[in-house]
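With this grant's support, the team has encoded backbone shapes as discrete tokens. A representative record is reproduced below.
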Amino acid sequence: MSRSASTGINGPASVEALTRNAAAVLPAGALEEKLELGRPLRVKLGIDPTAPDIHLGFAVVLRKLRAFQDAGHQAVLIVGDYTARIGDPSGRSEERPVLAGDVLDANARLFAQQAYKIIDPERTEVRFNGEWLGALSYEKIVELARTVTVARLLERDDFHGRFERHEPISLSELLYPVMQAYDSIAIEADVELGGNDQYWNLLTGRDVMEAYGLEPQVVLTMPLLVGTDGKEKMSKSKGNYIGIDDPPEEQFGKLMSIPDDVLGDYWRLCLDEEPPAAAEPMEAKLELARRVVSLYHDEAAAGRAEAHFTRVVREHRAPEEVPEVPLPRQDPVHLPALLVEHFDGISSTSEARRLIQQGGVRVDEEIIRELDVPRDRLAGTLVQAGKRRFMRFSRG
């Protein structure tokens, strides 16, 4: 999106652009009323610094935030350094682990650095919610807690399910949506954005703002982008994600692996466009991959990534450049350990053994099923693990 693009801060064209592809905009007509105020709106987006890498799923809501910026509004990025010590229970069947403060701070810095690939830093106000939540006295926390009932909190699917199954729910988890709602009071939010899984939390923000005598925020949620498996929402923990900082070849390859039936969602949520009507799924997928890699890298990188994909995946040839690694001195060489050491994505020797036994490892294009291989057999060879991972062993 061009940083110079602007549609003004009111008018029907702005409303259409701001609500395109949204899952929900509540209450009806409230956004139009806010826009009629004729001033830049304060548009809030909270981030959880427990997972610093931004993937295409979270980029969906960041791109919506950018649309508000391009329409002349003020983005307020809330880094949940304080609420992260509680852990967002949304969609969880158990309490989240709590990370150390220095880890959260480092994650927040990395997140902001990546987010600026999408949003405009000059129109972004970054705030840490420890600034106001850490200053609340016990009396103020009790006052805040009175604004929402336990019965209302237990209406949430995740809390309700755990309650019905007699599974533990800590008081800190019940407080999370209330504390997040207080962020909207602290920064006087006009609009709050989030994924569709944040719907309940964002509505709680409206209730709490009203209890404090403030004009409630407009809630705008975006659909959740499914991951490369085509089933579950994109998540690094599920291994089905495409990071915006992933290398171009990796981004391209992952995009080419998505199921055909989610192509439309990827075009709409990653590019704000409809897929080419007359294109075959393969061509539509290739164009999607070109466009997304160009967006987060550049056109030259997209061209190189496509050439790499064509050579390695479609033509089953080794890439033009293959990293060379030294062979260990022991003889024979335990191949699973070597694969874990040098190949990203192979995380354990048991995983490496399965790949070998299933015929997924080749040495100079020949399938190898041995786990312990004579050193001379590997010296100077090209090793392929799976479809896209290659390395060459030195002769030394």
